Inverse folding.
């Protein structure tokens, strides 16, 4: 998430007494004062001309150099401004504002070390110069010296306990250090001083979100929007929090508003696409990803996400093309290799798919997902031992990955290791109590195992029923398993009922009807189904 830029204080104009109105300037002071009036009227070029005339009359007039420097800086002429400030401090080495303003110009040029030196000199001259402390803190933060920045901001609020900028900038530095509680306290203090400070609400929202207080973050982003409804990033951040909470409609609404404010906001299109995909709107997601790519064609995660959406629609060629584009942008993008491997395997390109899984693991040896996918590929290629090795590695990397246990259980079952299979299916359910596949596989093993020691009809019926409940009684495979479980439990009428129900699903009947009808025939003969004994 983006933070609001720290507050930088501009150099102050040195106001002097204006002579009698209508009098033609004749002295250096007259020209300085007329220059100041021109600044107020929005005529910087005229002001610079008057300050220059003052310097011609009096080449040691520090106020003329300072004010000309300020106007040059405002016009973007930082080098000219620095030259003027340098001349001012050469004439008057104790002019704190000269060092301060030169520090500002140097910082704008990215020369943080020289800026810090100037702010420090200003502070040596005037130990209560809060603006110098404040801006030195900003420069220190830009250099990564958070402790130094925090110390400067703390001095600011010690000198001036009502200085909102000091609390605000200290909050930013504290949040960058991960001290969210103290950052929140500082932003709260800013809000007490200035209840209309939208940036303070915004940044407090960021800190609250970092702490996990998502409702508090939403409340602060909402308040920031009430104060300033035209800041796109505030809607964007509120959208990300809503998306994380599962409020996809609210997230989409926020991303849409962010896009209305800033039609070139690529991240808003990307995140709206992700939310639309999560809602099942793959076409809308693809449209958003495409727009994000038009705005920023070098962003790898946008191609990756569009690839996911295309793969979800069955457009494997399009998905592979997008994953490839993401890889061209970042050749170390392990996830893109992993997903391209999956798409290639589905297309039947076994070897290219396996090569992608290998590459993903080479790039990221800690990717449990890549090991799982390579394990699935190895098992389907007949290398069950290799598959088990990959699943085991995935579990070592991520002991909480239910899919790794489930797939290893399937492979162990194929290796005639029912104990290992049962242990893995059981662990899968422990991690993911809503995993219908694991319940179904346990039920099938306990209903149909060739070895009597592993059969338990009553328990199998319980597991199979749970799998059917999780799939809302709409999955023929689970209904087929339930039939086998009832047969093992001796309730053949229920077995016949559920096998017929499974066969009523056209796809199941087409794909598995021959074997299912053989089992149905056994049930009508009051016989349970048994898997063939291991060879």
């Amino acid at each position: 998430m983006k933070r609001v830029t720290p507050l930088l204080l501009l150099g102050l104009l040195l106001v002097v007494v204006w002579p009698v109105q209508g009098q033609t300037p004749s002295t250096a002071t007259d020209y300085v004062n007329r220059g100041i009036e021109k600044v107020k009227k929005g005529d910087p070029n005229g002001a610079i001309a008057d300050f220059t005339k003052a310097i011609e009359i009096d080449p040691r007039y520090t106020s003329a150099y300072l004010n000309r420097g300020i106007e040059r800086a405002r016009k973007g002429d930082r080098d000219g401004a620095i030259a003027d400030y340098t001349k001012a401090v050469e004439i008057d080495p104790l002019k704190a504002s000269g060092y301060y303003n030169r520090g500002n110009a140097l910082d704008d040029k990215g020369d943080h070390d020289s800026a810090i030196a100037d702010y420090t000199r200003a502070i040596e001259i005037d130990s209560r110069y809060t603006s110098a402390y404040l801006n030195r803190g900003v420069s220190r933060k830009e250099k990564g010296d958070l402790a130094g920045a925090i110390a400067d901001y703390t001095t600011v609020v010690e000198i001036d306990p009502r200085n909102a900028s000091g609390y605000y900038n200290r909050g930013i530095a504290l949040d960058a250090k991960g001290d969210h509680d103290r950052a929140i306290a500082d932003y709260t203090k800013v809000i007490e001083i200035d209840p209309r400070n939208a940036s303070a609400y915004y940044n407090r929202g960021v800190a609250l979100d970092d702490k996990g207080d998502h409702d508090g973050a939403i409340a602060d982003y909402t308040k920031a929007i009430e104060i300033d409804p035209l800041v796109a990033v505030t809607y964007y951040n509120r959208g990300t929090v809503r998306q994380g909470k599962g409020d996809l409609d609210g997230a989409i609404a926020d991303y849409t508003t962010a896009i209305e404010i800033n039609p070139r906001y690529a991240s808003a299109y990307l995140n709206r696409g992700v939310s639309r995909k999560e809602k099942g709107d793959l076409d809308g997601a693809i449209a958003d990803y495409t727009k994000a790519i038009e705005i920023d064609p070098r962003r790898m995660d946008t191609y990756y996400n569009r690839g996911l959406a295309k793969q979800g629609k069955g457009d494997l060629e399009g998905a592979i093309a997008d994953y490839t584009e993401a890889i061209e942008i970042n050749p170390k993008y392990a996830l893109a290799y992993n997903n391209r491997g999956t798409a290639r395997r589905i297309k039947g390109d076994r070897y290219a798919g396996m090569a992608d899984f290998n590459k993903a693991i080479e790039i990221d040896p800690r990717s449990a997902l890549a090991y799982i996918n390579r394990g699935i590929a190895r098992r389907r290629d007949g290398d069950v031992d290799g598959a088990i090795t990959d699943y085991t590695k995935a579990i070592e990397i991520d002991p909480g990955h239910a899919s790794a246990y489930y797939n290893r259980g399937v492979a162990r079952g194929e290796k005639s290791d029912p104990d290992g299979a049962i242990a893995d299916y059981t662990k899968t359910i422990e991690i993911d109590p809503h995993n219908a596949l694991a319940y179904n596989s346990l039920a099938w093993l306990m209903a149909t195992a060739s070895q009597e020691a592993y059969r338990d009809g009553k328990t199998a019926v319980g597991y199979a029923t749970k799998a059917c409940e999780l799939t809302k009684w709409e999955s023929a495979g689970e209904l087929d398993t339930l039939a086998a479980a009832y047969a093992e439990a001796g309730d053949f009428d229920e077995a016949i009922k559920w096998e017929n129900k499974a066969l009523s699903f056209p796809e199941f009947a087409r794909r598995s009807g021959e074997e299912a009808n053989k089992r149905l025939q056994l049930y009508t003969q009051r016989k349970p189904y048994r898997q063939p004994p291991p060879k």
The chain has a mean pLDDT of 94. Residues 433 and 439 are 9 Å apart (CA to CA). The longest helix spans residues 506-524.
